[in-house]
Amino acid sequence: MKSSFIAMVIKEFKHVIRDGRSLFFLLAQPVMMILLFGFALSNEVKESKVIIVDHAHDLASKGLIQRIDQNRYFHVIGSLSNESEAKEIFEQGRASLIIVFPENFSDDLKHQYKSSVQLIADAHDPNTAAIITTYASAVFRDFQNEQLGLLKMPYEIKVETRMLYNPQLISAYNFVPGVMTLILMILGAMMTSVAIVREKELGTMEVLLASPMHPLQIVLSKAIPYLVLAFITVIIILVLSVFVLHVPIRGSLLLLLAESLLFISTTLALGLLISTITEQQQVAMFISLVGLMLPSLIFSGFMFPIENMPLVLQIISNVIPTKWYYNIVRAIMVKGLGFMSIWKETVILLGMTLVLLTVAIKKFKVHLS
Amino acid sequence: MKKLWILIRKEFAQIFRQPTILRMIIMMPILQLILIPLAADYEVKNINLQVMDFDHSTYSVDLIQKLSASPYFQLVGLPDHPSDAMTQIELNKADLTLTIPLHFEKDLIRENKSTLSIEADAVNGQKASLGVAYAMQIIGDYNREVREKWLQLPRLNEFPQIEVRSSLWYNPFIKYPLFMVPGILALLVTMVGGLMSALNIVSEKEIGTIEQLNVSPIKKYQFLLGKLVPFWVLGLVSITLGLLVARFIYGIIPLGSYFTIYFFSAIYLIGALGVGLLLSTFADTQMQVTLISFFIIMFFVLMGGLYTPIESMPGWAQNLAAFNPVSYFIRVLRFIVIKGSGIKDLLPDLKAMIIFGIVLNVLAVLNYRKRSG
User: Fold this and answer.
1) Most A CBs within 10 Å: which of B31, B74, B116, B166, as the mutation test of the A interface?
2) What is the pLDDT at residue B327?
3) What single DSSP character describes residue A215?
């Protein structure tokens, strides 16, 4: 029985390898994705387009405009004589921030010790708007503090800041583990479900089921080649992350690989489950691509913080495997932590895998009769 | 023309014959559109703050109170020991540690100067730098209060102050669904339309029914047009359903006109379906479609500006994103719905969509082979 199982696995491997075009895509895609998204994705706001309305045209306003332009977050693209054109500028998306200096800006500052500026932000993207207004305010605050510094203000509270794990604030540290999680999730679930449903559609599944093999063995023999392929994908992604994207693996590589193997098993089990409830490849693919893509992305927490979600969705997020695997990868790769800080995630993934697998196999048997 | 009409009727009949698939095409996007925008709030708030207070003075307690009263911060702990603080950060229980040194109050009053330190979990660099910026703002305000208390009034007044007033247009209350619903709708419609049209044709290849069509006197463009029209209609139906969800579940009333929305949708869908048609001419099996569309969909989702602004990407990636049809549709829908932009404001996007529609479909017709093998 054992040797026939091995023979089955070898047969399935041959199946996968024979379709050269698919195999090529299977291995080349993660490479392209991790390189493309690893380099391209960034949530850092930089070079935001700013338009200035300067009613003052004095020393202080000119100095501040120069400071804004030199700041890495901003890029002054032009100036206007008054703010009435703001609506049109925003409707066409030409700038995201308009800074208005009132008349007598310097004079008021010098003689009345008080002056004001107005920031008009295009908040159709609320996140970017919040960030750029905060950073612009900081530019004004720094300017003011420097003026105060010249006056030698007493009672000064200084703040020293330290950015842990990622002092240069490189976006890839956040996005590479996230994209890796997403790729593995979709790839695993999609490949297994489509592969099995394909046999159902073509009718070859019947032939297999008529054989003396246990259904469990048949299903496993289908999953194992994809397990191996997905594991190779993990290794490729990690090599690229370290050597090309310069995202370090600070913790144990062995632990990371073991946890990845566990997560791949979870995704394959999910793929098996999808395959048992569908009869058509189109449906299987639709569920695993369109159905899983956004939930996997959103509930992983690498883009959208889970603590911001309504309670119901926070609870739902717990059943999404990507959330746990992303936590694991981030902890091992970026934070360099050991097993003790991720044992909970590991147990949860293990539990999910077992439950999914059990349900899938139960369903599979029912389907037989 | 008559042939085309018959073909279209045949395609519609085929779609309606498979209620599972039809239901999925309709329900899955709607369900996601109802749920996902609720989760897609990435405002930096709820920053978990812990304070190591070695001073335990009136001043340090005051400062802690000020920070935890801010809507951005949530005080999660007052660890006594640096290693405890670090563990909390490792376990993601805390994002920011503020350390108030011993003699903070004394140094501030007697030596005129005192130093605090902040440590931030910077795996997500943007969240960390924004969190620090918020903390600095509050500490700065507190500093002013201290000065106001200790300095004589006339003297304090001599310190120039710039008051910064900001107004957030279109979304003053920072509501994320307003921003995310149009974006997610654009994405879902594209995914469903592009994917279904590709799968539909390739499944005919796999089953072999395409051969029958190939030997018929139907022209290539007629065949593809016959596939395009039903999915184009379905796409418009999805958009309508999506707008209903936006209207009745999220209370989003477009500032622009519905006419503008449908005008752009109708043009955009031709290009989006063109992606699927072109894809189907390359692939022979649904397995191959699956794999290629995985890449395409990842590209659509991650490089469409749904979450990370395209302006934040490096130059080469921005150029690449210009080839992403979804990025235009996401932008256009957001602009019309949130800002009330009109066709005149969005002419560059319109041009891009028309080009996509023409190029992708012409390529699909050219690349479609009536002979198999």
Assistant:
1) B166
2) 94
3) H
CB contact under 8 A, B339 and A90: yes
Confidence grade of residue A150 (pLDDT, cut at 50, 70, 90): low
B123 chain-A contacts, CB cut-off 8 A: 165-166, 173-174, 330, 334-335
Asked if A155's CB is within 8 angstroms of B163's CB, the reply is: no
Cβ distance of B164 and A137 shorter than 8 Å = yes
Helical residues (DSSP H) of A211-280, grouped into ranges = 215-243, 253-277
- Residue A119: closest CA among chain B residues belongs to which residue? B166
Cβ separation of A169 and B125 shorter than 8 Å?
yes
Is B372's Cβ below 8 Å from some Cβ in A?
no
- Contact indicator for A171, A42 with CB cutoff of 8 Å: yes
Nearest CA in chain B to A328: B91
Q: Is it the case that residue A56 has pLDDT exceeding 60?
A: yes
Q: Which long-range contacts (CB under 8 A, 24 or more apart) does A202-209 make?
A: A209/A368
Alpha-carbon distance of B106 to B100, in angstroms, equals 12
Ranges of H-type helices in chain B: 2-17, 19-39, 58-69, 82-90, 104-110, 125-150, 153-157, 176-207, 209-215, 220-248, 258-282, 286-302, 315-321, 325-334, 347-367
pLDDT per residue as tens digits for the range A258-310: 999 999 999 999 999 998 888 888 888 888 888 888 889 889 888 888 888 88
Does residue B234 contact residue B194 with C-beta atoms inside 8 Å?
no
Phi, psi of B76 (to 5 degrees): -105, -10
Q: How distant is the Cα of B51 from the closest Cα of chain A, in angstroms?
A: 14
Query: Cβ–Cβ contacts within 10 Å for residue A221, how many?
Result: 21
CB contact under 8 A, B137 and A36: no
Residue entry with tokens 């500093």 = B143
Q: How many CA atoms lie within 13 A of B276 on its CB side?
A: 28
Tell me which amino acid residue A315 is. Answer: I
Smallest Cα distance from B217 to chain A, Å? 28
Is pLDDT of A128 > 80?
A: yes
Question: What phi, psi does B174 have (nearest 5°)?
Answer: 50, 60
* Chain B 195-234, residues with CB within 8 Å of chain A CB atoms: 195-196, 199-200, 203, 206
Q: A137: how many CB neighbours lie within 10 A of its CB? A: 18
DSSP B284-296: SSHHHHHHHHHHH
Give pLDDT tens digits along chain B (373 positions). Answer: 788 888 888 888 888 888 877 887 888 888 889 988 888 888 888 899 999 999 999 999 999 999 999 989 999 999 999 999 999 998 888 999 999 999 999 998 888 889 999 999 988 888 888 899 899 989 988 988 888 787 765 555 566 777 888 888 888 888 888 999 999 999 999 988 888 888 888 888 887 888 887 788 888 888 888 889 999 999 999 999 999 999 999 999 999 999 999 999 999 999 999 999 999 888 888 878 888 888 888 898 888 888 888 888 888 999 999 999 999 999 999 999 999 999 999 999 999 999 999 999 999 989 887 655 4
**Mean per-residue pLDDT over chain A, rounded:** 87
Strands B113-121 and A156-164: parallel
Q: What is the separation of C-alpha A363 from the centre of its chain, rounded to a whole number of angstroms? A: 33
Does A40 sit within 8 Å of B43, measured CB to CB? Answer: no
Q: What is the dihedral of CA B198, B203, B204, B208, to 10 degrees?
A: 150
Confidence (pTM): 0.86
Q: What is the pLDDT of residues B269-307, one digit of tens each?
A: 999 999 999 998 888 888 788 888 888 888 988 888 888
Positive or negative torsion for Cα B89, B92, B93, B95: positive
Residue from the list B39, B113, B289 with its beta carbon closest to the beta carbon of A156: B113
